[in-house]
Amino acid sequence: MNLLGSRDELASMLGVPKEEIIKKLSEVSPEGEVKLVSESPTLEVIEDQVDLTKLPILTHFEKDGAPYITAGIVVSEYGGTINASIHRLMLAGKDKLAARLVPPRHTYLLHKKAAEKGEPLPVAIVLGCDPTIIYATSTRVPVGKEFEYAAALRGAPIELFECANGVKVPHAEIVLEGYIDPVERIDEGPFVDITGTYDVVRKEPVIHITRVIHRKDPIYHGILPAGPEHLLMMGVPYEPRIYRSVGEVTTVKNVVLTEGGCCYLHAVVQIEKQTEGDGKNAIMAAFAAHTSLKHVVVVDEDINIFDPNDVEFAIATRVKGDMDILIIPNVRGSSLDPRGAPDGTTTKVGIDATKVLVEKENFERAVIPE
Q: Per the residue annotation, which of 95, 130, 193, 278 is the catalytic one?
């Protein structure tokens, strides 16, 4: 666990200071090189008699529905399209898993296409690989571009090899080969998701595992639900999307999805305000970029967005409630929000905590002379 458990570790992986993570991610396009190879250390051990209970699949919390694979990258191929993304996978037997497939994510769409034709969707579940691949597969990129994005982040090609079912995967500690059944569904959950609360039980598709391949003495990678690594991997990929979207309407300096907001529901956006209205435009752009975002605060350049006290200072001294707060009811929110409505809608709040430009001198922060 905690392979990428902090922004410092992510910054180290990217080779930039922590404050420049989002700028770096915003500049990288999914156009790196991917190579197909015939050999892999993952093929050191091949097990045709599948028994998933031999793996150290963890039960993390007292009300979990079953042990869960939490760091499994589900690679799927159908109709010439390949996708790779992380899904929670509930142990449902020695050779079965239940997968939470969220519409309209790409694995969900590929399974839907295959199921409409009564066909299984070939998959391979990757456990324990290069951290750049783990990060890339948690990011929303064009379909089929996850490995190219990983290669671009890494600055070196990503090698893929072909599994027995035709799915191409990167070198890893463990790979589970199989297929998603077109019809079979079982109860999945309860499971603790990013908010640290239990998600509801749903009928979800079943993955049948037909073969297990792994290195000798493999290392099993897990992610603690609602832990630092989960928050980072779930939240940071949305920050460049917000950064680019806000950059279309004003000069954006930085973005963070805050830990107190589960790195998913709350954002702080830093802008270089040039005209009145920039703050509110930034609010709307942030909501458009991340539909699960619930509350956003927009601040000036002199506010440290990584310091909750500084952000609260901006709200305390620069916000007039009847003028600087936007309330937007009945809009799509996050299925993970315990306060969301049954139909998936919520009320969003945007706070413009930027200075009034014609009164800038009133907001000058005192400095002790040297």
A: 193
Q: What is the mean pLDDT of residues 213-219?
A: 98
24 is in which domain, residue-wise? 7-224
Query: Mean of the pLDDT values across residues 341-353?
Result: 96
The pLDDT value recorded for residue 18 is 85
User: Which residues neighbour 321 within 8 Å (Cβ) at sequence distance 6 or greater?
Assistant: none
Collect all residues with Cβ–Cβ distance below 8 Å to 266 and sequence separation of at least 6: 257, 258, 260, 293, 294, 295, 296, 297
pLDDT of residue 336: 87
Neighbouring C-beta atoms of residue 191, cutoff 10 Å: 22
Confidence of residue 335 (pLDDT cuts 50, 70, 90): confident
Q: Is 93 exposed, middle or buried (0-12, 13-18, 19+ CB in 10 A)?
A: middle
* 50 and 194 belong to one structural domain: yes
User: In sequence order, what are the residues at sequence separation of 6 or more whose Cβ sits closer than 8 angstroms to the Cβ of residue 15?
Assistant: none
- Same domain for 257 and 189? no
Among the candidates 168, 195, 224, a domain finishes at 224
Same domain, 200 and 260: no
Judge whether 193 counts as a catalytic residue: yes
- Does 104 have pLDDT greater than 90? no
| 166 and 264 co-located in one domain | no
Look at the chain and report how many structural domains it folds into: 2
